[in-house]
Design goal:
The complex is a heterodimer of chains A (284) and B (94).
Chain A lengths: L1 E7 L2 E7 L6 H16 L7 H8 L1 E3 L2 H16 L9 H6 L27 E4 L4 E4 L8 H16 L5 E5 L2 E5 L3 E7 L2 E16 L4 E4 L2 E4 L2 E2 L4 E2 L4 E8 L2 H12 L4 H10 L4 E5 L4 E4 L4
Antiparallel strand pairs in A: 1-2, 2-6, 3-5, 4-5, 6-7, 7-9, 8-9, 9-14, 10-11, 12-13, 14-15, 15-16
Chain B lengths: L1 H11 L1 H23 L5 H32 L5 E4 L6 E3 L3
The chains are: A alpha+beta (284), B mainly alpha (94).
């Protein structure tokens, strides 16, 4: 097994491959860097940011596909996953790439921002129109989608795994993957599919003396508040796992998350502020 | 004849008493019904409680619909289980 790691899309990317031909690593790395120039909201020259500035325009196939995926996910997640929470994330203080985010102690506490903005997509012309006053943030789903794409390329050579900053896509063998939960770890063996984690244990910052995090509840327009610290979910793909992890994280308290995971049969690992690590959805 | 007139007078004297008795029973019943209805509670506690119950019911119905949507929407199920193998990589909050 060979490992290849690099930084792109604002995070660490890790590729694992069991094959003789390793030339695909360079191809996948180049593809991640290209996708960053399209999908990042932290690059003013990205295609996404140009769309956000103009509110509408014709976009390329990759951006169109991810926006379509995100808008569909908003519908089937009951609005808990929402690609138009960007202004609420910025209002909460996440207004630059996370590495550049510092304590903004003297700034005012965040006020609720509007969410659930309308997005109109014309698939035939590639035209996308975002309701004025809203911006699109594809953050996690873009990384999951990119991981799924990269896996499709690598898996042609042999058993492969792609880890895009925690969004994992894997195929071809049982890949043991550590899930950070509470103060310890639990290891999941993923044979095919995706894993993703949503949580308030990372990407947190202090504003007006209060800890803030990036997971906005579209129902309130503010960072979600509950006893849940992390939710890790397994699904058919990394992008689907990303949506499901966020959807379950925003369900409410630990018991509600576990109930929904169990009823919908979503393999889930949850950690909460009481230090408990709880399994649901078929994991034992 | 005199005795008959006296009996008649005595008999008619019962009517107001019967009316009074019936009126008292009716008044007592109305008072009981009024008190049993707890009219002083209708505006202070029953309304917020039923509103909270209605909100709770709405949320449960919405959550049930969401679970059905999540179950119906999912693509191929992943193959995943807890293992004791040494991990090759780590997932974390993305």
């Amino acid at each position: 097994m060979t490992r290849h790691a690099f930084t792109a899309m604002g995070t660490e990317i890790e590729l694992l491959l069991e094959a003789e031909d390793l030339s695909l690593f360079a191809e996948v790395e180049a593809e991640f860097r290209r996708l960053e120039t399209i999908l990042s909201r932290f690059r003013s020259d990205s295609e996404l940011e140009q769309l956000n500035e103009a509110s509408e325009g014709c976009v390329g196939p990759e951006l169109l596909e991810v926006i379509e995926l995100a808008v569909e996910a908003r519908a089937w997640s009951g609005g808990r996953f929402d690609p138009t929470v960007c202004n609420a994330v910025v209002a909460a203080g996440y207004d630059r790439s996370f590495e550049l985010l510092h304590d903004t102690g003297s700034r005012a506490a965040p006020s609720p921002a509007r969410t659930s903005g309308a997005v109109k997509i014309d698939r035939t012309t590639g035209h996308v129109a975002v309701e004025p006053g809203y911006r699109i943030d594809l953050g996690g789903i873009a990384k999951g989608w990119a991981a799924d794409r990269a896996l499709a390329v690598l898996a042609t050579a042999g058993p492969a795994l792609v880890n895009a900053g925690g969004d994992v896509a894997a195929a071809g063998r049982v890949w043991p993957i550590a899930v950070r939960a509470g103060s310890g770890e639990i290891t999941l063996g993923l044979e095919h599919g995706g894993l993703a984690t949503s949580g308030r244990d990372r990407r947190t910052w202090v504003r007006s003396g209060e800890a803030r995090h990036h997971l906005i509840d579209p129902a309130t327009g503010l960072p979600a508040e509950s006893d849940v610290v992390t939710v890790t979910v397994a699904a058919g793909s990394a992008s689907e796992a990303e949506v499901l992890a966020k959807t379950l994280f925003l369900a409410g308290d630990s018991q509600r998350v576990l109930d929904e995971a169990e009823l919908a049969e979503i393999p889930t690992v949850l950690s909460n502020s009481a230090g408990e690590v709880l399994l649901a959805g078929g994991l034992r | 004849m005199r005795a008959t007139e006296k009996e008649w007078t005595v008999t008619t004297d019962h009517t107001p008493r019967l009316y009074a008795l019936a009126g008292s029973i009716l008044g007592l019943f109305l008072a009981w019904a009024g008190i049993a209805a707890h009219p002083w509670q209708t505006t202070s506690s029953a309304t917020p409680r039923s509103a909270a119950l209605e909100t709770y019911t709405r949320r449960l119905n919405a959550d049930a619909a969401l679970v059905a949507a999540l179950t119906g929407r999912r693509s191929a199920a992943p193959s995943v289980r807890v293992v004791t193998l040494p991990p090759l990589t780590t997932t974390r909050t993305s």
